[in-house]
Design goal:
Number of domains: 4
CATH topology of the largest domain: Rossmann fold
Oligomer: single chain
CATH superfamily of the largest domain: P-loop containing nucleotide triphosphate hydrolases
CATH architecture of the largest domain: 3-Layer(aba) Sandwich
Distance between the termini: 57 Å
Strand content: 5-15%
Helix content: 40-55%
Structural class: alpha/beta
Number of strands: 10
Radius of gyration: 25 Å
């Protein structure tokens, strides 16, 4: 059996045990580069594929290879780039650099679809924190309108929701069947509705929407409280859904946690597939860093990458920002920063709950999550829509900042501290038993710590 047949046999066996999305992400464009003595060398397209195969699939690959040929005792991986381009840009000293490369595709937003071609499945890193969302998005891109409709993806800021949504659109755009695709933020959708009503051409607006094959709407939580926009969106949703047109939505929270969302819309959003994206783990953060360096044809020492991956935990956007800061320093000083220098440079990025979470941030995050004014939390009222968020704010002040019960009571206008104790115990007990509440508090904490 030659190398090509050997590898094809390996891939066939692996494919039986992993999802189609994972197979396409990590094993596409791989092959045996050489086979000498006891070592098989496998070529992969980029650094994050190499990292992932080495860490996640190496034992499986080696076992299959050894079963096929018992002389094989080791597998190595090498990167065989797929022709990545580097575009130099000018920085402050007037010299050209490929640091912080601005791939020109980033600015070539397709005017018809509003999609950015740089967002693809190929450069989307999968981890346990987003595996379900990625698999669902991939399935939708394979069979739009037929697999999961609608697809609803939610998670905190900077975790890759927009990337994933646009990757679906870009993959469908590149397919054999020509489909009309539109990516739009909810803010632009709201503006479009308002302008259409003002200009007396709402029918034209609705007719244009009805012609779309794949509608992608980002950040639908901003539809909350906008009754006219929700009404028009509901009708547009139904029109597309009845024609088996694909609808893809994103939000910073699940449908049942969006305040002032009409029940009929909520039930539509919950009628398909709901998948969340959470914080990436250390291993995935390290892969993301190495992937970014591979794209820029640059490198940093392992101890530096390890420090960044271990300490910059807020989100992927912050991770990329931290990496860019180090690369700019490296260019300006014409040297690789030491670990001590890196610690100083990234001081503002390092995640520390006791530095980040404070009273003001907790109050702001709770109020914003439940679509309230901050002052509403301090009103003397027994309204359920106020009491519940207030109890959660009290719970978080105790849990995250270790405030004493009397101190929390003083913050809320001198309430009896037994009221605070009751609120804390009530939410604490429900937190263990109520999945919806657990999810809501988790999302609020994301807002606190990413702020």
């Amino acid at each position: 059996m030659d190398n090509k047949e050997l590898w094809q046999t390996v891939l066939t066996q692996i494919q039986l045990g992993i999802s189609k999305a994972n197979f396409a992400t990590w094993l596409q464009n791989t092959e045996i580069a050489s086979k000498e003595d006891e070592v098989v060398v496998v070529s992969v397209p980029n650094a994050f594929s190499k990292e992932w195969l080495s860490n996640k699939y190496n034992k499986l690959i080696l076992k299959i290879l050894h079963d096929l040929d018992d002389k094989i005792k080791e597998v190595e991986y090498i990167i065989k780039p797929q022709g990545a381009k580097v575009f130099p840009v000018k920085i402050s000293n007037g010299e050209k650099s490929n640091i912080e490369q601005l791939d020109f595709e980033e600015f070539k937003i397709d005017k018809e679809t509003n999609l950015n071609p740089r967002y693809t499945f190929d450069n989307f890193v999968i981890g346990s924190f987003n595996e379900l969302a990625h698999a669902a998005a991939w399935a939708v891109s394979e069979n739009p309108g037929l697999t999961y409709n609608p697809l609803f993806i939610y998670g905190g800021v900077g975790l890759g929701k927009t990337h994933l949504l646009q990757a679906v659109g870009n993959k469908i755009t590149g397919g054999s069947k020509k489909k009309k695709i539109k990516y739009i933020s909810s803010e632009k959708f709201i503006t479009g509705i308002v302008n259409a009503i003002r200009n007396h051409n709402i029918d034209v607006f609705k007719n244009n929407l009805s012609q779309i094959d794949v509608l992608i709407v980002d950040d639908v939580q901003f539809l909350a409280g906008k009754n006219k926009t929700q009404e028009e969106f509901f009708h547009a949703f139904n029109t597309l859904y009845e024609k088996n047109k694909q609808i893809i939505l994103s939000s910073d929270r699940p449908p049942n946690a969006i305040p002032e969302l009409e029940e009929r819309l909520r039930s539509r959003f919950e009628g398909g597939m709901i998948a969340d994206i959470s914080f990436p783990d250390y291993e995935t953060r390290l892969v993301i860093l190495k992937n970014k360096l591979q794209e820029k044809h640059l490198g940093l020492p392992e101890d530096v990458l390890d420090y960044v991956a271990a300490n910059v935990k807020k989100n992927i956007r912050e991770l990329e920002g931290a990496l860019n800061r180090l690369l700019i320093y490296s260019k300006i000083n014409n040297s690789i920063p030491s670990l001590d220098t890196v610690k100083k440079l990234l001081k503002s990025y390092i995640f520390s709950p006791f530095d980040v979470a404070n009273y003001k941030k907790i109050i702001e995050a709770v109020a914003k999550f439940y679509n309230l004014e901050e002052k509403d939390l301090f009103e003397t009222t027994r309204k359920k829509e106020i009491v519940r968020p207030r109890q959660i704010a009290m719970f978080l002040l105790r849990k995250e900042l270790k405030y004493s019960f009397p101190a929390i009571a003083r913050k809320f206008g001198g309430k009896d501290h037994t009221t605070v104790i009751y609120a804390y115990r009530k939410i604490n007990q429900e937190f263990e038993e109520n999945n919806k509440l657990t999810e809501e508090i988790g999302l609020i904490k994301q807002k606190i710590y990413s702020g």
